[in-house]
Write a structure and sequence with these properties.
Four copies of one chain form a homotetramer. Chain A has one domain (44-201, 211-350): Jelly Rolls (Sandwich), CATH 2.60.120.10. The first copy, chain A, is 20% helix and 33% strand. Chain A has helices spanning 3-19, 29-32, 48-61, 165-170, 193-198, 221-237, 338-344, and strands at residues 22-24, 44-46, 72-75, 91-97, 102-108, 112-115, 120-126, 129-134, 138-141, 147-151, 157-163, 176-178, 203-205, 218-219, 247-252, 266-272, 281-283, 287-294, 296-300, 303-307, 312-315, 321-324, 330-336, 349-351. Chain A is globular. Chains A, B, C, D: Keywords: Dioxygenase, Oxidoreductase.
């Protein structure tokens, strides 16, 4: 065969591949199977000072109600155009509820949480159990739990929602159902029933109903703060507790299993003591962070952001991440898809040892 | 063969069995493999009003120190003569420490806990971490943890110890080591380091060292009481929480695994609302209870005891147990060998439905 | 505000969203969170009679070697244009190796298997252990195991490869490494070392090294066939064994853990007795099947395919699937992403009860 | 107080302890909590050449039937007088069934197996599934499975039974029920139904009923032998497989869970190549061994036994054990209580490194 003939034969072969819905590996292998993860998602920053006013404007212009369901505005990673995804697996949004507003009940396969960077006065009813939302609290909505929110005050309130929408969409695994149009309850107790049963350290209530996901659905700031404070105090006293010098972390867990509070999303609160710089770490899997208090600097690969309260940033898979803070110290909430990788045997972490 | 010959042959056979260290099943089967458990251990009651004065007299007459190691007086089940066992698997003792006394450090395979029915002022140092002991607290000493106790006050203090000594002895699994003769620490903090790290509901400290047993070694009465109170309040409000009408229970668990706080001993606190009578229940495995507060009546098979604060009673395997209380209500601490049976696939429970 | 003003304000808001890399939920919710899975992937059929000649033509025109690495031609789902994915999580390809050809060593995060519908004479060396490939065999290449193939005969051989390439790509979790250019071994034993250690029913070799994935990497047709035959014989004798009348199934499992042979891919062989029609079943998650023997009819939603030996078809998430066969009976190999959904708590199955 | 007064006071105290069913720890601690396990059980040997004739004589003198249930003669450890226990947890017996004899159906909590050192022709029906017993086979009877045995031949047959009778007795956990007086089946298939479903390496039958214990109840000698042979051949070829030089081991496992075939008893077959001497090993927990083939020498602490086919020996907890064999090689079946210790966190092993 001449080179020309061969080229023609190859062209015919490739045309026949296409007609037969086939694709050769040898032309694609390099892009499909990279030497290390090459995410389309990019490091990205969303400033609270931008987000919050836009949410406020939405509050004036867009009603909350059946259909759209929530006044939530999602972080759209610039590397994933056409999507509303913060990372390939994680959804993050600011949700905004005006005075007296109600977001109606629904339930879905997608796992959700809310984290409150400021404000209070909204209750989220989860399967009819009213859960107060206050600054610093993490509130869970495990998959297929009916939930609805209502603002009991004269002031608007905004918070962030985290979900595994992109993962569930990619896996074609999602089911969704509308709930009743009227609120299940207007009660506004300080503590939800699930907290009263499950919110005692190391104590299992024998009479509590079995649940497929975390029975504790509210993690209050007072406990989170106390735990982080204790870790840094123990460090001062010379005892173990911090993950690295000046860096305290708690992970939110299901008290009935001691595993991650949510099956597909890891949730953690980090505290950096003033003057701390973390080791640079790469993790397979992506994360979204929100600054809860203080100020600091985030380095993700080549990107460098100065961040302050409410700012959110996305960390793509295997991107090197370093956090630091000067005088103020830094409290930051992190959520990630780590449990997915651990469950599938795909987890990998690399920690650069700091140079002297 | 004549009958006489046959009998003689059989006698020779049995003699030859014995000489060869053999025993036929057919003469023993009925006793070895009973239709239901037939424990040698019997229901038994030990009154605090008897125990405590005897412990006090020991305080005057018997020194604490290296060798005997502890001034502990064990409940000896009348059905297990020659032993110091409360049940075939469980050891229970009252331990007594006079003003300023010290019980020296040692460690052992045997799993231990202390439960405090009254008093305060003793610290138990577990692996050098000083743990305060106060009324209502459960304090753990998992296997092979060095521990020592010292009374920091001018008053004596007594509490109960629970261990799996009989089980470990029967299994020939025990190792024992003396520790240093001098106290690891004389510090008397209100909260131990393990509590500061692990004593926050649903929060895992990422920087805490991994441990083979529960990292939380003190369960404080304030949490236990709050959890039981909440269960009964939820019952009043019409929500799940109690195990049966008027009966609240919390189980002490390892926050790192959500399993029993100790690998071989289950620990629980029960609260009966005034006027409650429990369903009659049989459990394979044995238990020891101590009344913590209130008064009540205990029925174990044919036995019936009126009990009050500090009284201890042993419940043999498969014995029907019913607790009741009149006006006072009843708080009772229970420990059992349930985790052993669950781990070995031998657990079985029968609950008699109450007649109308 | 007039309607015109409002519309203008809303347009400005949406423009500001876009500029800030934000997307509102309320315009997307319906598409993102559907009432049931709505896969982009569609039911699809690839005929062996088309695939194999194309693979042969590739054998003439495309060399095997470093870079492209494998002469593998992937099934590209028509619903996922621009990809080489059979389903959103699964890769399936026909691989072709001519007489004496070698496919060089590499390793990758992606989990792989080969299944042989016809032929023999290729050995795949997995971490240096030579594994024969013969009709009916399933051969594993767990993640990060070096592997290479070589054809020891004068005849070409083709088989199918299954991998989790789409899943790992979507999760940005893949690592890839080239191995040595020369074959690790040219040995051609009938049984690999891993089979000699682990291929005995119910027997664990105590001296075998620990492995993070299945230590058994070859499942031979003689065992698969015997197991399926036994299930149908037991059905004839009136005993349990089949999953439904006339339908026998074996799942390939890791003998060290009894879980799926691969962490992200389920592998099974199905046998339908002549005249059998399965219940219609929907599963969350996708699958690819290959007919191994016999003929039958596949119904996937509205699609209906008559299939014969070697034909492959893809079943999207939640699509109703029915298999039937007339006189010939049907043996079919199935692989799916079920373990992913089970690990993440997303599994759901619906089985339509057959009408009378 | 004078010394005399003090002594008198102490005597009164001790008398009062006894009257109150109390025992002080300080007089008992050393015996209860030893520095290392000090078993009452002793190393012991029972020769097949003694056992078998005694079993034969029993066959002439003692009928099999309801009540005694089995013609089984138990090994009674000389260190545990008054019991029929081989070790504190394990029962081991020779069972003997004459031509045409039947041992009637019963079931019990106690876990059992049979191991056949010689002969054939008895079928054990386990839940109505007839299981052939042949030389080298291990046959299981998990707890609460009805079982009965019948000898289908003109020759008597003897084998060993292993059970956890002492453990279950100590734990007061046993239930026992008589079954029907007539055999469930007289069928004598070569392979039981459970083997036909579950006896294929790495293959799970999807339609098989779920069972709480191993669904595979027969482990055939041909597989055991092949697995051991392969390990030694791999050693010859320079590959991993043996646990130490010349020493091959397979453990019998539940194919549905990959854990020990029985929940409370570990079962293994060991093979020593001619000229092998094992490392000296101590294990917390006890074991009973039976020589299956060849001859060898057993050292247990100070004891030394030359053993041959059928000989049984008991190894107490923590006793140093060494096996060796000269020209003949040695095959030996081992059963132990290891799973109990592993489940309870009490396992400990010490392996003496061989001196040069």
């Amino acid at each position: 065969m001449t080179i020309t003939d061969e080229r023609a034969a190859l062209e015919r072969l490739y045309a026949d591949f296409e007609a037969a819905h086939l694709t050769p590996l040898w032309t694609q292998r390099e892009g499909l199977m990279t030497q290390a993860p090459q995410p389309d998602a990019v490091p990205a920053l969303w400033r609270w000072s931008v987000l919050h006013p836009l949410a406020e404007r939405s509050g004036d212009l867009v009603p909350v109600g059946r259909g759209g369901e929530r006044r939530a505005i999602a972080l759209a990673n610039p590397g994933l155009p056409g999507t509303a995804y913060a990372t390939p697996t994680l959804w993050a949004a600011i949700q905004y509820l005006g005075p007296g507003e109600e977001a109606p009940a629904h339930r879905h396969t997608q796992t959700a949480f809310r984290f409150v960077v400021e404000g209070e006065g909204v209750w989220t009813n989860v399967e009819g159990d009213p859960v107060a939302m206050r600054r610093g609290d993490l509130l869970l909505t495990p998959g297929m739990h009916f939930h609805e929110h209502h603002n009991t005050t004269e002031r608007p309130m905004a918070w962030i929602d985290g979900l595994d929408i992109p993962l569930v969409r990619q896996l074609d695994a999602g089911f969704f159902e509308f709930g009743p149009d009227r609120l299940a309850t207007r009660a506004t107790p300080a503590a939800s029933r699930n907290e009263r049963l499950w919110g005692h350290p190391g104590l299992r209530p024998l009479g509590a109903p079995a649940t497929p996901s975390s029975p504790l659905m509210a993690y209050r700031w007072e406990h989170t703060d106390a735990a982080l404070t204790a870790q840094l105090e123990l460090e001062d006293e010379g005892y173990p507790g911090v993950v690295e010098p000046g860096h305290a972390v708690v992970r939110f867990t299901d008290p009935a299993t001691a595993r991650d509070a949510l099956s597909t999303i890891r949730t953690e609160m980090h505290r950096l003591r003033p003057g701390t710089r973390t080791a640079t770490t790469r993790v397979v899997g992506s994360a979204v962070w929100q600054v809860f208090d203080g100020t600091g600097t985030v380095e993700i690969g080549d990107q460098r952001y100065d961040v302050t309260k409410g700012d959110l940033f996305a960390v793509p898979s295997w991107a090197p991440l370093t956090l630091s803070t000067a005088d103020s110290g830094l409290d930051a909430f992190r959520f990630s898809d780590d449990p997915v990788y651990e469950a599938l045997g795909l987890a990998r972490t690399h920690r650069e040892e700091p140079s002297a």
